[in-house]
């Protein structure tokens, strides 16, 4: 196989046989998940299924008990800061901003990880440092614009409405210039308009070439957003496939959705109609 062919078939991110045991509890058991370039993958499953644990394994926060995670075919470093530099960024289920810092400063935190300005550069504040700082600010402003946060750069992050704080978290993650973005419940606590704006934002992020993995409880959101969906139940992948395959799978309806089939079908029909309106 030529190098070009090899690259074309290479997964951006691939977890194989990932098992995570905490004391006596197996939170993940032999999980396989992979992400193709420019794709959006959804991860759904009931509370405690292991979704966040898997994210923690994909970002170097946890070293799997067994199995491996490869980023572009290379073993992931077991240090979250190195994983960020290697190209994986994430947001958290509970927003983790620096509440007293300004909106712009929060994005600059992400940017600095990418700039890798060492302590020596900061002490001397030479011309290179100043230029780097100026460029970082420009880039941070562009990112704020991109996520739809305009005119609030000097506000303290804690003063932003909830939905905007989620956008800011995404801007900060994008500031590290990731290849892969992991979003942990990006629409939690959002109203329907904010949820729709978040969906459009994720599409725009994907369109810039970033591959995305999303954890969400809102299945309608996931089915209308993702190219493929994995369903985790009790630490194992129950089903993986296209949104259509997953939502029609009786095991998913029974084991995860846990609601009457008619109700699920109504949700599914609504999601499909939504997608149809989008496509037409
Ligand atoms: N650091 C840890 N130490 C011990 N047990 C843990 C740890 N992290 C997670 N667990 C356990 O692993 C299991 C999976 O938890 P996890 O948070 O990954 O689930 P989840 O699918 O993200 O759930 P939710 O939807 O509620 O966020 C749970 O039983 C949880 O209690």
Plain-language structure description:
This protein has helices spanning 3-9, 51-58, 80-86, 103-115, 119-124, 127-146, 162-174, 192-207, 219-225, 243-248, 250-257, 261-279, and strands spanning 13-22, 25-35, 40-44, 66-71, 74-75, 88-90, 180-184, 211-215, 228-233, 236-241. By secondary structure, it is an alpha/beta fold. The chain has 2 domains: 9-87 and 179-280, P-loop containing nucleotide triphosphate hydrolases (Rossmann fold), CATH 3.40.50; 97-177, no CATH class. Adenosine-5'-triphosphate binds next to strand 2 and helix 2. It holds the Pfam family ABC_tran.
**Span from first to last CA?**
39 Å
- Main sheet properties: 6 strands, mixed
The share of residues in helices is 40-55%
Please, how many domains? Answer: 2
Provide tags for this entry:
single chain; 280 residues; Rossmann fold; 4-stranded antiparallel sheet; 12 helices; globular; binds adenosine-5'-triphosphate; ABC_AA/LPS_Transport; BCA_ABC_TP_C; ATP binding; ATP-binding
List the helices and strands and how they pair.
Elements: H1 3-9, E1 13-22, E2 25-35, E3 40-44, H2 51-58, E4 66-71, E5 74-75, H3 80-86, E6 88-90, H4 103-115, H5 119-124, H6 127-146, H7 162-174, E7 180-184, H8 192-207, E8 211-215, H9 219-225, E9 228-233, E10 236-241, H10 243-248, H11 250-257, H12 261-279
Helix pairs in contact: 4-6, 4-7, 6-7, 9-12
